[in-house]
Automatic annotation (TrEMBL):
InterPro entries in the cross-refs: Cation_efflux, Cation_efflux_CTD, Cation_efflux_CTD_sf, Cation_efflux_TM, Cation_efflux_TMD_sf, CDF_Transporter
Source organism superkingdom: Bacteria
Keywords: Membrane, Transmembrane, Transmembrane helix, Transport
UniProt-listed GO biological process terms: intracellular zinc ion homeostasis
Source organism: Mucilaginibacter agri
Spans through the membrane: 7-29, 41-61, 73-94, 109-129, 149-170, 176-194
Cation efflux protein cytoplasmic domain segment(s): 210-285
Protein name: Cation diffusion facilitator family transporter
Domain Cation efflux protein transmembrane: 8-202
GO MF entry, a single one: zinc efflux antiporter activity
One GO cellular component term: plasma membrane
Main location: membrane
Pfam families: Cation_efflux, ZT_dimer
């Protein structure tokens, strides 16, 4: 968690410095096109500040009021960031459209292009670093902030190209027209972040995560684990919570059942690369399970095994034993 906070603090400091650099470029050139990047840099600063707050809150241990921890705040952080990006993009589109009809003179274009190019390169390097660390640390906030910086880098690259065109093609409408295009791109980026945050807040199924868990269980399943069903996964920041039903032989005593449940927990936590909390409900096997059960020397078997059922996301997530599929 200390590493997450350190990365966000660095991102916040860099964002403040680059914001002043971009506004300097705007005041030098009076370019609406550059203003699009400068306006978005304000969002970078606010987003990094809120990301620092959310990561600090998410690091708090679970308590009576928050039995699953505070990790959900990271989705709220992404929601705020996406909203701010969207507002900035809409504002840029309106201002650029207005300036298409009432253009003004742009000056010292190459100076502005150099400043924007440098800020874009810095944001790109920092953004890629934050995305990689965010994935490794399972932090949606770091990853979202990093993608925002990558968006800033792409925007800056487009600005440099556009400013170069403006230098050689001095059309009055070109500055505003390009700013509208960039504004639309920023709006789309904000929408994607909003979509991702709402999916997390609404506990939308993350099929990639569920599929990874199913593959781990399927690859290392034991004969005692007759079937797994009603598997559901929820992400709370850097932690994953899973509940499922595990069918075991009905003649196992409570100690044996506990050992098998604990083994499933250890297996996933060792291989899933994400801290996972399991809530496993155990079901006793039924006679209808025999035809796909591999348990050797079973004292209650009613029929021989005649089929292998591979665990897939489809049959593991259903609230039914596999013979009911």
């Amino acid at each position: 968690m200390k590493e997450k906070r350190s990365i966000i603090i660095v991102a916040l400091i860099v964002s403040i410095v680059l914001m002043f650099a971009k506004f300097s470029a705007y005041f030098i050139t009076s370019s609406n096109f550059i203003l699009t990047d400068a306006a978005e840099s304000i969002v970078n600063v606010i987003a990094s500040a809120f990301a620092f707050f959310s990561i600090s809150l998410a690091s708090r241990p679970r308590d009576v009021n928050h039995p699953y921890g505070h990790g959900k705040v990271e989705f709220f952080s992404v929601f705020i960031e996406g909203t701010l990006i969207g507002i900035a993009g809409i504002t840029i589109v309106f201002k650029g459209t207005y300036s298409l009809f009432f253009p003004h003179e742009v000056q010292k274009i190459l100076t502005g292009a150099i400043i924007i190019g440098i800020t874009g390169a810095i944001n790109g390097g920092l953004g890629y670093y934050m995305i990689n660390r965010g994935k490794k640390l399972n932090s949606i906030t770091l990853e979202a902030d990093g993608r925002h910086l990558i968006t800033d880098m792409v925007t800056s690259a487009g600005l440099v190209i556009g400013l170069t065109l403006m230098y050689f093609l001095p059309y009055p409408w070109l500055d505003s027209g390009l700013s509208v295009i960039v504004g639309i791109y920023i709006v789309v980026t904000g929408y994607k972040l909003l979509r991702k945050s709402i999916a997390g807040l609404m506990d939308e199924a993350d099929f990639t995560v569920v599929n990874d868990i199913v593959n781990i269980l399927n690859a290392q399943r034991k004969v005692e684990w007759i079937d797994v069903h009603n598997l559901r996964a929820q992400k709370y920041g850097h932690e994953l919570h899973i509940d499922c039903h595990l069918t075991l032989p009905n003649y196992f005593d409570l100690n044996r059942v506990h050992d098998e449940v604990k083994l499933v927990d250890k297996l996933v936590n060792r291989n899933a690369n994400v801290k996972t909390e399991f809530f496993i409900h155990t079901d006793p096997c039924l006679p209808n399970c025999c035809h796909y059960c591999s348990m050797p020397n079973c004292p209650i078997r009613s029929e021989p095994k005649n089929i292998d059922i591979e665990w897939t996301m489809e049959n593991v997530t259903r609230n039914k034993k596999h013979f009911e599929q």
